[in-house]
Each structure stands twice: as C-alpha cells, then as structure tokens.
Design goal:
With 83 residues, this protein is α+β, with helices and mostly antiparallel strands. It contains 3 helices and 4 strands; from the N terminus they run E-H-H-E-H-E-E. Strands 1-2-4-3 form a 4-stranded mixed sheet.
Length: 83
C-alpha cells in the first residue's frame, strides 16, 4: 500500500526492528500491541521485518489502527500502525 497522504515521519513515536526477535523464534505481536496501546491519536508505530507481517497487519487493522507497509532502502519491510 502506498503511504497515506497524511503520513508524516515526525509522527513516528516508536520503532521496533523485529529481526533479532524473529531470529530467536519470538513473535513480536504482543510487544507491538503493548507499545501501540500507549500511542496518542495521530502517532505512529514502525516495525521493521524481512517480510510483510500480514497477520499482524490484520490484527492491528481490526483493532482500529491505520496500517501500511513499504519496502525500505535497507531491503526490509517497514510497516506502520497509526492510532
């Protein structure tokens, strides 16, 4: 999905590089949900993964977050959850 027009990188308040967790076999969904719960309206959480985290995107969208993903220059998938 393309970046929404109202997306501003200044609104990224939290970021998680999930690669170390995934390498240990830890799924970051619970951590993402906890961190997103403290966001204020308009704030954005970013997660960096080597693949699109489709189930996580679906869960966060169902919880009322705007979501989108983009391939970063680093070759990773950057997914954003906006409250």
């Amino acid at each position: 999905m393309n970046s929404p027009e109202n997306f501003n990188t200044a609104n990224i308040k939290l970021s998680l590089d999930a690669r170390p967790l995934l390498a240990q076999g830890i799924h970051p969904l619970e951590q993402v949900q906890k961190e997103c719960a403290i966001l204020l309206p308009g704030e954005i959480f970013e997660i960096i993964t080597p693949f699109p985290p489709s189930p996580m995107i679906e869960k966060m969208a169902a919880a009322g977050f705007e979501t989108f993903s983009a391939n970063g220059e680093d070759g990773m998938v950057h997914t954003y959850f906006k409250k």
